[in-house]
Amino acid sequence: MPQRDSLAGTVMVTAVLCVVCSLAVSSAAVILRPLQDKNKVLDQQINILDASGLALGEYGLQATDLNADQIKELNGWVSAKLVDLETGEYTDVVDIEKYDLLEQIDKNGVKIENPEFDPGEPKRPKVMKVFFVTRPGSEKPQQVVLPVYGKGLWGTLYGYLAVKSDLETIQGLTFYQHKETPGLGGEVDNTRWKSQWENRKLFDPEGNPAAEVFKGPAPSDNPYAVDGLSGATITSRGVTSLLRYWASDDGYGKYLEKLEQELGNSSES
After folding, report:
1. What is the per-residue DSSP string for 97-158?
2. Using CB atoms within 10 A of its CB, is residue 199 exposed (0-12), middle (13-18) or buried (19+)?
3. Which of 94, 148, 98 is nearest to 121 (CA)?
4. Which of 19, 20, 97, 142 falls between 20 and 30 A from 43, CA-CA?
């Protein structure tokens, strides 16, 4: 056996420590995986409830302030489907329970080439998981919640855009992951700023994507705009671009046209 103070002894001790640490980290990852998955689902539920305004509407609380029973109750109003963005049709080519946006972008992503509105991202998934908010007793959804993402100043903003059943009026917008500067672009998390999105119009009368973050205070007679983010011009432009991209035919446009027919003229607002 090597002497403890010898080179061989040092190498052996180091190797043993590496193996032990690797086993400990691997074991922790396996043990914690179910908890991580559960927290991921919970975070998704909270952000959908935030964008849809259900937490405020039903309990007068921010979604992050709801207790477990309240989250479970309101999440019971939310259902999901998979949409093929190329055709606008529903699909089951992916297991909806195992759907992961980042994985779909990485493994099955389609290049974003020469879009009318540039989200600043290289790829989008072929299939998106969209959500519906349907109140108990109602046959038709009151909202559709669309996952959206696009480039900000320091990285990608990932969020949810909730649209009312007329498919033209925004209910809410929230971002659950981003790298924007606190106090500047990070104000996308500010409750006051987010509240401005309610009842803004996603499209102009000709059907063109028109929602925007204005440069400075938004004019009171502009139905598409919210106030700009002070000192965060690039983030503001990024939010405008990603919203218009996902509202266009390069994003959810084809699906929204089909959903409009599905809901019919008698859809609830």
Report:
1. GG--HHHHHHHHEEE--S-SS--S-SEEESEEEEEEE--TT-SS-SEEEEEEEEE-SSSEEE
2. exposed
3. 148
4. 142
The mean per-residue pLDDT over the stretch 206-219 comes to 97
Which tens digit of pLDDT belongs to each residue from 48-89?
Answer: 999 999 999 999 999 999 999 999 999 999 999 999 999 999
Nearest to 163 by CA among 213, 204, 197, 118: 197
Amino acid code (one letter) for 172: G
Tokens 């409830």, located at residue: 49
pTM of the model: 0.85
d(CA 73, CA 135) in angstroms, rounded, equals 11
Write the DSSP symbol of residue 188.
Answer: G
Tell me what the pLDDT averaged over the chain comes to: 90
10 Å CB burial of residue 220 (0-12, 13-18, 19+) is exposed
Nearest to 108 by CA among 87, 86, 91, 123: 123
- What token pair was written down for 59? 């309990």
Confidence tier at 24 by pLDDT (50, 70, 90): low
Over range 127-153, report the average pLDDT.
96
Residues whose CB is less than 8 angstroms from the CB of residue 107 and which lie 6 or more positions away in sequence, other chains included: none
Instruction: Give the tokens for residue 209.
Output: 């994507």
User: What three-state secondary structure class fits 66?
Assistant: coil
Per-residue tokens: 43:
């975070």
Q: How far is CA 231 from CA 154, 183, 192, in A?
A: 14, 9, 17
Kindly state the tokens that stand for 220. 């009171």
